[in-house]
Amino acid sequence: MSPRQARRTLVQLAARHATQRVLSANLRGYAQAAVVQDTKPPVALFGLDGTYASALFTAAVKTASLDSTSKSLAALAEVFKRDSKLPIILNAPTLSPSDKSQIIQELQRHMGGQDRGDTVKNLLKTLSDNNRLGILQGVCEKFTTLMGAARGELDLTVTSAAKLDNKVLQRLETAVAKSEYSQGKKLKVVAKINPDIMGGLVVEVGDRTIDLSVSSKISKMNKLLTDAL
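Predicted structure:
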């Protein structure tokens, strides 16, 4: 090989290595950007409980504890279902720092050691320090919404004045699944009870609401009567 050919070969090798370094740097940049993007909650939530749920989701993703955080909050949601007095206790303005500490310990006990990295424990402490333990139930519900969205699910929330039979809920799920409201996504049924609606149903699918409640009909009737007078 002549000196000129040798120099040409060296230049080509140097150019090839430089290109590989640039590609590697770009790939690392894309990977880092993807990681940052993945920490963003899949849907926008509103309200104070939504703000905390979104922050918790981001923290859980960054600490690779999303699954354990979801299980921990699901366990807390079950506590709220079993104990109707818990929201009243958490909203009590007279809770002392000692009371709050005991409540957090009890809530942690119900999580059964699933809180990897103390992600939920930190949430509870933050809520306690800011006198916002009363929104914990809402945070649990909103976090469930985020997890469903991350899995490609769509919440189907059915609110009634009294508990609905499972067969009724299944029929509603089937009907909505066949409609345009489902957007072709898997539905996750969430049943709620609110005596204030007096009867009928309030069906929420994603960001859409179908109000078939008796209270809504009475309100509309009252408005018609008021406008007519």
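Summary: Residues 155 and 188 are 5 Å apart (CA to CA).
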